[in-house]
Amino acid sequence: MKHKKEILISLTILYAGFIFYLSAQSNLSVPASIFKIPIMYELAGIAEKLGFGFLVDIADYAHGHMDKIAHMFLYFGLGVLLHLTFKNSDNVILKKYAAIFAVILGIIYGVSDEYHQSFVPGRSSSVHDLLADGIGVTIAQVLFVVLIMINLRRKKENDRDINPEDQKIID
Fold it and tell me: Model pTM?
């Protein structure tokens, strides 16, 4: 793709702008109605019977802290875009350390977002929100690193699977 770098930069800026827009809203609430669907109670019972009660505990915590979950998801998206933007940069250092730069810039943006919210009527800044932002960005980077490691392992296995006679033909 010819303009991949410019497209990624634009998407990242637009996404950051979307987060800024959401932060500027006075009465922003996260709907918790998904947890009130009757099938969710059935799924919780099944999970507990199968020994996965901890998932019910996590869901219960999430229900009580939907705003933190929303922060994590929003900043997960920002983390993905930041990583892709840095990975497609012309700068060798940004490319090599894309995950680290994505976490740093994501957290800096989270700090600025919380500062911005402190001026919005009906909103407040919170260290817990910033922590959720940082977790979201970091989870995105961990997933990228895991995917890169899986890809490298697969590539290494494919290289090993090539027959030495076939390798001579390729060379």
Answer: 0.75
Q: Which three-class secondary structure state does DSSP give residue 65?
A: coil
pLDDT tens for each residue of 58-100 = 667 666 667 888 899 999 999 999 999 999 999 999 999 999 9
Sign, CA dihedral 43-46-50-56, equals: positive
Answer for the pair 110, 75: CB distance below 8 angstroms, yes or no: yes
Spatial distance between the Cα atoms of 11 and 15, rounded to a whole number of angstroms: 6
The single-letter DSSP state of residue 26 is S
Indicate the SS3 state at residue 125.
coil
Q: Hey, CA dihedral for 107, 110, 115, 116, is it positive or negative?
A: positive
Which DSSP symbol is given to 3?
A: T
